[in-house]
Amino acid sequence: KYFFLMFPLAMFPLIMIKSTCTPVPRVIWVLPENVVLPAPYYGAGMTVHRNGTLDIQSLKVTDAAFLTCIAQNEGGEAKLIIQLDVLDTIEKPRLRSPKMESLSLTVGRTLTLNCSVEGSPAPQVTWVLPGGTALMSGSRFTKFFHKTDGTLVISNPALSEAGNYRCLGLVLSPGRKPEINNRYNSPVSIISGESLQLHCLSASDPVHLTWTLPSGVVLNRPQRAGRYTVLQNGTLSIQQASVYDRGSYTCRTANEYGSSLLTISVIIIAYPPRITSSPAATTYARRGVAVQLNCVVVGIPKAEVAWETPDRTRLIVSPQPRLFGNKYLHPQGSLIIQNPMPKDTGFYRCTARNVVYEVLLNLSIKA
């Protein structure tokens, strides 16, 4: 038979096994590492009574194990396996200070925010700033310093520091591997060129946290490597993501009791540029009549569009209209030649390029 038993930490459990065999069986307990205790047995912290009851004094987390009770007589043998799990005794954290408080901020004058939390074991205090940044005990961030006593100090504050500040108290269960609090149920999609944040939040501290990139590069916390930054709270920030950033990202949190993994698939949305509006391959110009060459492009990320004129001049399309002599460049990519002259005849090329691909459009103007 098999039983599963759970006891709170520091209790004195009695595991009683009653046998009704004739003749009366001999009872032994087999502990981890094949330690055998016969009945009766009287030891430090552990007793096996004459009736086969196992008595364990002052349970610890490390006492969790599989225990086997064996009863034997001339008729044979019976075995019972018990899985003993020891639960931690945890006291919910309580705020000593008011749950909500309103303070006045004076520009340039240091401001101190108090947060006193009690619990068992001692709670871990985290301050969450108005922008969402989490500061662990002893951490600094620009004007903010979270002291080890739970106090948040704001040096030389400006009006931009006004807002809601939250103080969180967490009681950590000793003897457990760190758990990752957030999950991603589907791949994360982002448009190429945008910034991305991947969260890996764990309540355990101290904890060793690493991110493994699709390329195999491993980043620790906190660390900056090019466009990648691992923030103090474990979040991985990727600036201006490109198609080369797609793939699987793995966050690993570890302490002396074990580790947890979080794998996130990232999809970078990108499409090659495509010219959707263009004139005929050859356009005939007449003096005094403007010529319009269209080169309207779509693509993700937005493509860079440029024109090359017969004299090899390169004109780059910008968000604002631009004028180059008698040539007017529209933000949507059209090149308008006002009052065309003989020197304006020849071959023109429109180029559209993004990180995915490059397309060309060759045109000519004839008199």
UniProtKB/TrEMBL annotation:
<feature type="domain" description="Ig-like">
    <location>
        <begin position="93"/>
        <end position="167"/>
    </location>
</feature>
<keyword id="KW-0677">Repeat</keyword>
<feature type="domain" description="Ig-like">
    <location>
        <begin position="273"/>
        <end position="362"/>
    </location>
</feature>
<feature type="signal peptide">
    <location>
        <begin position="1"/>
        <end position="21"/>
    </location>
</feature>
<keyword id="KW-0732">Signal</keyword>
<dbReference type="InterPro" id="IPR051170">
    <property type="entry name" value="Neural/epithelial_adhesion"/>
</dbReference>
<dbReference type="InterPro" id="IPR036179">
    <property type="entry name" value="Ig-like_dom_sf"/>
</dbReference>
<keyword id="KW-0393">Immunoglobulin domain</keyword>
<dbReference type="InterPro" id="IPR007110">
    <property type="entry name" value="Ig-like_dom"/>
</dbReference>
<keyword id="KW-1015">Disulfide bond</keyword>
<protein>
    <recommendedName>
        <fullName>Ig-like domain-containing protein</fullName>
    </recommendedName>
</protein>
<feature type="domain" description="Ig-like">
    <location>
        <begin position="178"/>
        <end position="265"/>
    </location>
</feature>
<dbReference type="InterPro" id="IPR003599">
    <property type="entry name" value="Ig_sub"/>
</dbReference>
<dbReference type="InterPro" id="IPR013783">
    <property type="entry name" value="Ig-like_fold"/>
</dbReference>
<dbReference type="Pfam" id="PF13927">
    <property type="entry name" value="Ig_3"/>
</dbReference>
<dbReference type="InterPro" id="IPR003598">
    <property type="entry name" value="Ig_sub2"/>
</dbReference>
